[in-house]
Design goal:
Keywords: ATP-binding, Kinase, Nucleotide-binding, Serine/threonine-protein kinase, Transferase. InterPro entries: Kinase-like_dom_sf. The protein has a domain of 44 residues. The longest helix has 10 residues. With 76 residues, it is an all-alpha fold. The relative contact order is 0.10. 28% of the residues lie in helices and 0% in strands.
Length: 76
């Protein structure tokens, strides 16, 4: 059985219309404020080291040509 809050979160994330889908207008902050995540301390979570960091897929250095030399690139 899936809890009601989880069902609500999933249904809002799966809305086909991007204008009505949760997170499409206010970004991740709308998702973080959903009652399903009420016990999550987002600041503490951000500081927590991951339990596993996979090795890189390639051994060569990847250079991003984003037009801003010297600007760090964040990979997700």
């Amino acid at each position: 059985m899936i809890p009601a809050m989880a069902k609500d979160l999933i249904s809002q994330l799966l809305v086909k219309d991007p204008d009505r889908r949760m997170g499409s207008t206010m970004g991740a902050s709308a998702i973080k404020r959903h009652p399903f995540f009420h016990r999550v301390n987002w600041a503490l979570l951000r500081c927590t080291p991951p339990p596993f960091v996979p090795p890189p897929l390639a051994t060569k250095t990847v250079v991003a040509d984003h037009g801003c030399p010297g600007t760090p690139v964040e990979y997700y």
